[in-house]
Amino acid sequence: MPLMRMAAENSSVTEFILAGLTNQPRLRMPLFFLFLGFYVVTVMGNLGLITLIGLNSHLHTPMYFFLFNLSFIDFCYSTVITPKMLMSFVSKKNIIAYAGCMTQLFFFLFFVVSESFILSAMAYDRYIAICNPLVYTATMSPQVCSLLLLGVYVMGFAGAMAHTTCMVRLTFCANNLVDHYMCDILPLLERSCTSTYINELVVFVVVGIDIGVPTVTIFISYALILTSILHIRSTEGRSKAFSTCSSHIIAVSLFFGSGAFMYLKPSSLLPMNQGKVSSLFYTTVVPMLNPLIYSLRNKDVKVALKKSLSKKTFS
């Protein structure tokens, strides 16, 4: 891979040591079992929701098409991060090869940026469903949904390539201890021997786009949705409309709140320990909570789950 060859030529470091979440030995095993439990719930929840949507034909709608892909993204980027983080709790030195570190960085960024845009696509879908229900089927056709999804993954790839390409151009110092539990942008920049000005500029521009564009899309969508809901006369209609959007609002708040806190603050104002805690939300907690939020607060998913369980019990 040309990117990895260029990385090897530009750096004297062949591997990094991930410091992990804590340096207190007595906390390692409790944290190991805690995050192992989180990961098991994440895998079961997201794969369960993917399976449920795939097997139930009445869930083959645009809303669940995007939810299917959200669960896929959550499963993937949790798998990119969590297993390596768990290693830091049970090994003396959690070593990751340079190429492995850059690969983890790329796929983490690819999935996390894709998530921000899939959430905005879901907000647009809810806007059409509530504000223009008569043209919903025509507007959110399979072709439109496929194009939106293609845009989601293209933006994910572009964001990941921008950051990773800038990162592999840096020369890293002999001190290869990364004060984090994963290969993330800001902790890696601290280990650079060369100027990181371009990288920091790319962080503010690209992250600003990757958080700003979806956030504006979501705010506009929900402002229009709220206006439409307030014009609904029946209490039952308002309640149904609010319940349709509440799950998505919770997921969006958790994801963008923690992401903005981590990347859109100057590193001098955000100690790395606080950065670790903030990044835990969008790398570990959010992927675990999303399937729970969308299933426990979603009537269609509950009905589909009951039908699937009753079929299994009957058979």
Automatic annotation (TrEMBL):
InterPro entries: GPCR_Rhodpsn, GPCR_Rhodpsn_7TM, Olfact_rcpt. One of its GO terms (molecular function) is G protein-coupled receptor activity. It is found in: Cell membrane. The chain crosses the membrane at residues 31-55, 61-83, 95-114, 134-158, 201-229, 241-264, 279-296. The keyword Phosphoprotein does not apply. It is a multi-pass membrane protein. Residues 45-294 form the G-protein coupled receptors family 1 profile domain. Keywords: Cell membrane, G-protein coupled receptor, Glycoprotein, Membrane, Olfaction, Receptor, Sensory transduction, Transducer, Transmembrane, Transmembrane helix. One of its GO terms (cellular component) is plasma membrane. Its main location: membrane. The keyword Chloroplast does not apply. Putative odorant or sperm cell receptor. Belongs to the G-protein coupled receptor 1 family. This is Olfactory receptor. It comes from Lynx pardinus.
